[in-house]
Amino acid sequence: MPARPFNPALAALREQIAAMEGESAAAREVLPFGVPDLDRRLPGGGLALGCLHEVAGGGNGAVDGAAASCFAAGIAARLPGQVLWCVTQADLFAPGLEQAGLGPDRVIYVEAGDDVSVLACMEEGLRHGGLGAVVADVARLSMTASRRLHLAAKGSGTTGIALRRWRRQQEAYDFGQPTAAMTRWRISVLPSAPLPVPGLGRARWLIELIRARAGESLDIELEACDGTGHLGHPAVLADRPAQAVGA
Amino acid sequence: MLAGRVGNRRLVTAACAVAQELGLTVGMPVSKAQAMVPNLQVLPHDPQADAASLERLALWVLQRFSPIVTVDPPDGLVIDSTGADHLHGGEEAMLETLIGRLVMSGVTARAAVADTWGAAHALARHVADPMHVAAPGTTEALIAPLPLQALRLPPATLASLRTLGFVCIGDLLHQPRAPLTRRFGPDLCRRLDQALGHASEPIEPLRPSELVEVRRSFAEPIAAAETIARYIGKLVVQLCAALEERGLGARRLDLLCWRVDAHVQTVRVGLACPQRDPQRLTRLLCEKIETISPGYGIEILSLTAVMVEPLDARQMASSLLEAPAPDLSGLVDVLANRVGARGVYRMAPVASDVPERSVTRVAPLSDPVGAGWPDHWPRPTRLLARPEPIETLALLPDHPPVSITWRGIRRKVARADGPERVFGEWWKRDAEMIAVRDYFRIEDEAGERYWVFRAGDGENSETGSHRWFLHGVFG
């Protein structure tokens, strides 16, 4: 799917809309993923900081949220400052997060009883302004709640990531409901590339950008976060000749 | 053994466990005890020191367990745990923690929870071994078989009751009250009613003079949330001024609301580091207003800094240096008071190969640990609270499974890596002396990656049951 050609009229319209929304597009900072194919599609060339983003797992990942939390940890790891992680069930394994780049000293966990208090804690973290990122495992995220979180994130410049995770796979249809989040991602696991010897290669994900405000959606197959939180091109693509990478 | 003077006789007033085993009892003349046990160590009884140390103990309980504590001389403490037990995981868990902490510091204690002070007093001294939790509403049945000493009566009354043939509390419960009152005075029936909960017995909370306390009484009882919030604000300003005078910062605050019907509602907030910033403290307290039930109105509000620590003015980093790290203590306090202090934590590594033991929770604002975990083996992002048994098809001794069935779904294993052998920690438990777990990373045909292990090394059945478990999910 080729990227749309740059249209000055559209860009002017976008700026006008951004001005009406009370945010100047130029002032917004972004966090590039370091994957040109992905960054080119995101408005501003990366993940917008100081916004709310939504991440969910595909398939069984909707229940265990393992790949999605790895993806969120990779983003949080590349942002400076402490990270607040709000959960309802404490099943995150800190050594696993460290292998996605997020060391134990950087994460403060909050174990709240239910979804409502998780959202309240997340909002509190976003409003504080001294954190690098706030991640929360939430199941239900209404338009009102997400709007509150988004405004809180915009006010302080802290990036919020709502990690959508449901008790049962059937409840994942909730992910189709509209929210105020800037982007919406679905991370599904894919079989890894076979190795010449018995063993497991680097995990591979299908990263779907389902929705991006002022951007286009996209499907891309990438390798999971490395020890610094960076995604990688699959080996077969990474070894293409230089001119092919730009295409 | 301690000896005290009662009248003109020297009697044994306390004896340690060893002495009691030798046949010494409290109330025995000292000369007789010395005759029974040569080389007996006799120390003089010092009631004032006893009272002082009991008060110290009460203060310790006040700081750690419940806002309303007082001493019950000569040898007891009364704790009103209403609204405080859930912070320690329920009544039973609270007693266990309390007794455990006391035993560790060398104090033998017995404790009971009951509906009333009188009943708890009786149960702690005559039933608890070393603890007893009475279900609500069972007071009468529980205290009926107890001896009369449990009623907190003067010795003269006890002796004459015994002469009349009364042995246990149950004998008294169904006697006509009028003759008893005429003979023994109002005390006996009052004690009975207090034990059964028919008469109220307020606990006057211990407030040692060194505690910083401010209080405000209202001519007209207050009940509205906004009014309470306004007066909390005023009290906090007073408290902070008092703290500043002494160079202290509060670590724990108790707000006691005395209602017109003599009930006390308590609010307790904790702080991660000493504070005396009125705004921050007011905010923490006001968030808890919804937990106060004002009933017919509140007539006294009192605010106490139960735990304080020295707080000196600090020099701020100048802007020439690198930007100071953001202060997260305010956020941590708000979150900790919302979800409970145990709900806010950071993870720190522990030197252990057993996955569930390799992490520990530390306070959210503790110093950075620096090092992480060794990273030569991949670790899952989600670890199940306890390993779940799975059905597998696998070759012994060291092959990964060919297929697994987890939560009723069968998955064929496409690729696998392992085993990573984890040995039991023989220095922790005897059962782990030769225990072994073999961990495998497996990937099914859809690409889902799991962390499974087999209990045992696959050859020797003493090393484990050879059953398979799923322990984590990789991202």
Automatic annotation (TrEMBL), chain A:
Record-linked InterPro entries: ImuA (IPR017026), P-loop_NTPase (IPR027417)
Protein's name according to its UniProt entry: Damage-inducible protein
Provenance organism: Paracoccus acridae
